[in-house]
Amino acid sequence: MIVVTGATGQLGRLVVEGLLKKVAPGEVVAAVRDPAKAAEFAARGVQVRRADYDDPASLVAAFAGADKVLLISSSTPGQRLAQHEAVVAAAREAGVGHLAYTGVLAADTTTLSLAPDHKATEDAIRASGLPFTFLRNGWYTENYAQTIGQALAVGSFVGSAGEGKLGGVPRADFAEAAVEVLTGEGHEGQVYELAGDEPWSYADLAAAVTAAAGKPVAYQDLPVEQYRKVLVGAGLPEPVAAMLADADRGIAEGELTSDSGDLRRLIGRPTTPLAEAVTALVKG
């Protein structure tokens, strides 16, 4: 039995859909905070279990009988590590056979401000003694959906990544990798650095949007602190603005790309090209 946490989230839904192409619905558990939101999965024969990262007892019950669990990282700043540690403890108590975790590229060496929670989670998983696989995901091209929409409205977008490149691909590529790990063999103990085959810059992104929309779009580079202030001025909470500005700083320094080829090998095909991913976002 395979359990997917956060199964009604954007990545989780894609993983469950991918699993349903490979295993019987009854062998898949959608572990979610609100089971009502997973009604569509239940209607298709998927087991739906309540699993709240802040309720350890619910996690143990959700993992009962699980051969494999995919821990999709929490998106709650300040609480993420404690929530992850609760999941790891529950997986160990439930006797889970294999725990896969979606973290961030080069979690143990990157200077990205969002990385410490991911590194600490990996440390907790290693210390648990559970067989594990670390899926260190790069950036999703969907992260730029709002940016693209705004750029099409005003003709430009801002950032602070300079000429740096990132290996961003659609969530679907990362979901396929997770499905392979959950259904394939030989992944225990592996650490996969997952990124696109062809890294791209923000200038490349602007060019791809221009080509897809038939409307000129330009990229304007700003100093990191100035970009952070722009984000705050646009209404983003300070911690979110700081994280996004720091991510751009990381992109400028090459911290959100990898030449490992792990993603391509796991999904058995080339990763989705930027032009294709952007076209999908532009066309909506």
TrEMBL record:
What InterPro entries does this protein map onto?
A: NAD(P)-bd_dom_sf, NmrA-like, NmrA-type_oxidoreductase
Any Pfam family from its record, for instance, is NmrA
- Superkingdom: Bacteria
| Domain named NmrA-like: residues | 2-247
Q: What is this protein called?
A: NAD(P)H dehydrogenase (Quinone)
Task: State the species of origin.
Answer: Amycolatopsis pretoriensis
